[in-house]
Amino acid sequence: MTAKQELFNILDAIGEQLDITPTQFNNAKDRYEAVGKHLAEGEYCLINKKICLKNGEIYPQGSIRLGTTVKPLGLNEFDVDLVFFTPNISTDDIDPTELNRLIGNRLRESETYKKMMEPLKRGWRIIYHDEFYLDITPSIENHTEPYNKSELVPDRKIQNWKSSNPKEYAEIFDATALKSPYFSITKSIIENRASTVSDFPENIPKKPLLKRYVQLFKRHRDVMFENKNHAPISVIITTLAMHSYAYCIANFEYDNEYDLLLAVLDHMPAFIQKENGKYKIMNPTTEHENFAERWNEVPQKKDAFDEWHKEVTKFFNRFHENMGQHRVFEVLEDGFGKKPISNIANQYTANITQRRNIGLLATSALEVPVKSNTFFGKNVL
Amino acid sequence: MFYKSKKPSFAQLYASLALCPLSKNGKGIFKKNYFYWEFDIKPSTFSKLYKILLIWDIKTSSPNVFVLDTDVWEVAEQRDIPHLYDYKKIKLCLYHPLYNQYNRNMSLCETIIAWTYLWLFYYEEWLYSDDWKGGGEHPKPKKEPKKISPLKKIRVSKKRNKEKPSLVDRIYNQRKDIYLQQMSTPTLL
Fold it and tell me: Pick from A324, A342, A371: which is nearest to B46 by CB?
């Protein structure tokens, strides 16, 4: 295995550490489905109108839906972003504040949720301590774009509705992630390298590459902006990575997953558009949602993105073959934080010790028998 | 295969180093009363390449293994590297002398050389975690890493310098000088 392949294995294992576990995910799903059921059973109708929460549908959006969740820094709770879609309502019927109030009232009718809920700017949060936050945003039908599945969600100031399309966004993201890159077959030139012990335990990738990349980029962002403002928002990182990934795999061939990661990162800024002095990163699934809208109001946000992109590029280029295993872990800690890396390092060492215990000195080139020994030593002086 | 009851000769031990897949990249010198073998080890994909010097004095029952590496010497000045006989020379303590883990009838490759690999692997891990994960025993387990004052270090090394250097020490010093010369000579492109 080449150093780059091994590095990607380590990165992949880090991503796995940061991910929500299947058990956590299933728990979250059970919980939000129960919330959705509770909301949809409510007899909350506005007088003279057929505005009801009835027949509403709850569904996940954002990282939980995309498979790009990242364990939050210093918190135990994952964010589970949800949309509560209420059909048969138009913008003339209700404004976002009112619909939010309606949802809040219905939640309060449950003795359970009553104690766990907290208002959000654009919806409600239900807190499951040490597990997750269920963040619910209301949405209604978007009659102006009948040709897609877009919906209307409250805008940032919750005064108006704006279009969004979490469902189709997730569909195209998934479809892009499922496109496999073509890796040129490169034989590792073992003969020219000193034989090495201990390749990282090869894990079978459990996640499409694009999703893993997005996770890693977001984690680097979280660590870099832990005490700083204007962190680039996830949807911007995700959208640019998606475009860049599609472009890279359609046009080029790479040797390995790590080289592709570098290329995806490198091409991300090329998908930021600028029209009449305004930055644009459009939601590809609805007409009027510009993810970079805030960059045009707060220029520091664009600067912060540029700064992050420079840093994350520098970070992923800090690895080289003879740097020392300890340096690999130290550099990884700089980018991703201490905790996931010490777990990975322990796993890595345990793998070598396990093979040693069955009498094998594992090297990437060959496995050599090793007899049992007890490291000894005098006192230092 | 037939059972060999005969103890391997000194020359056979030397020759085995050139056959061992882990040390065959090296070279050495064989003399009547000693041999040495110098080779490179890279214990894992991202590891540094370490120069290893194995010296065997025919009058002794086992070889001496040293790491010739400026980085390791530097670390030894600041931290207590575990499982060493000599922190200045980085002489490795690879097995417990009382547990019958090594004798010269055994394959050098599967013992001393493979253990050197493991030592270096755990050494790099220890650099990162400050926790020696390779197991082993120290005659006097230390809870807190003892800080050696630089003065004490100098005193001890001066004391040692007064003693007449052993055969192993002489060869070690020779090889170390050559290593240092090579380090300071710029590599031609």
Answer: A324
Whole-angstrom Cα distance, residue A116 to residue A293? 33
Same domain, A153 and A232: no
Considering only the beta carbons, identify the residue of A356, A371, A377 that sits closest to B111.
A371
DSSP H/E element including A298: none
Distance from CA of B119 to the nearest CA of A (A): 8
Residues of B in Cβ contact (< 8 Å) with A196: 42-45, 47
Is A218 found in the same domain as A183? yes
All residue ranges of chain A with pLDDT < 70 are 1, 43-51, 185-205, 363-366, 378-381
- Full domain range(s) for residue A185: 3-18+173-379
Asked if A83 and A215 sit in the same domain, the reply is no
Show the tokens assigned to A83. Answer: 């949309």
- A345 at B interface, C-beta within 8 A: yes
Residue from B46, B117, B157 whose CB has the most chain A CBs within 10 Å, to mutate: B46
Q: Do B101 and A372 count as a contact with CB atoms less than 8 A apart? A: yes
Residues B109/A195, Cβ–Cβ less than 8 Å: no
Here the tokens at position A373 are 């020994």
What DSSP state is assigned to residue A380?
Answer: -
The ipTM estimated for the assembled molecules is 0.81
- Report the predicted TM-score, pTM, of the whole model to 2 decimal places: 0.87
Do A8 and A56 lie in one domain? The reply is no
Query: pLDDT per residue over B108-135, tens digit each?
Result: 999 999 999 999 999 999 999 999 999 8
In a domain, A168, yes or no: no
> Taking CB atoms and an 8 Å limit, are A353 and B102 in contact across chains?
no
Element housing B162 (H / E): helix B150-162
Q: Note whether A79 and A99 are same-domain residues.
A: yes
CB contact under 8 A, A322 and B110: no
Calculate how close chain A gets to B131, using CA atoms only, in Å: 10
Per-residue pLDDT at A205? 63
8 Å CB contact of B138 and A379 = yes
Cα separation, A212 vs A41, in Å, equals: 38
- The answer to whether position A278 is within a domain reads yes
What is the rounded average pLDDT for all residues in chain B? 87
Domains: count for chain A: 2
**Can you list the alpha helix ranges (DSSP code H) found in chain A?**
3-18, 22-40, 63-66, 96-108, 111-116, 166-178, 209-224, 234-251, 257-267, 293-297, 299-316, 325-336, 338-357
Q: Would you tell me the crossing angle of helices A3-18 and A338-357 to the nearest 10 degrees?
A: 120
Q: Considering CB atoms only, which of A322, A330, A368 is closest to B114?
A: A368
Q: Is B147 exposed, middle or buried (0-12, 13-18, 19+ CB in 10 A)?
A: exposed
How far lies A129's CA from each of A107, A122, A132, A257, in Å?
A: 18, 21, 7, 37
- Chain B neighbours among A 280-319 (CB < 8 Å)? 319
Q: Provide φ and ψ at B176, rounded to 5°.
A: -65, -40
Residues A158 and A187 in one domain: no
pLDDT, tens digit (0-9, with 9 covering 90-100), for B52-63: 999 999 999 999
Residue of A nearest to B141 (CA): A379
Contact residues, chain A, for B95 at CB < 8 Å: 373-376
Domain-ending residue, one of A163, A190, A213 = A163
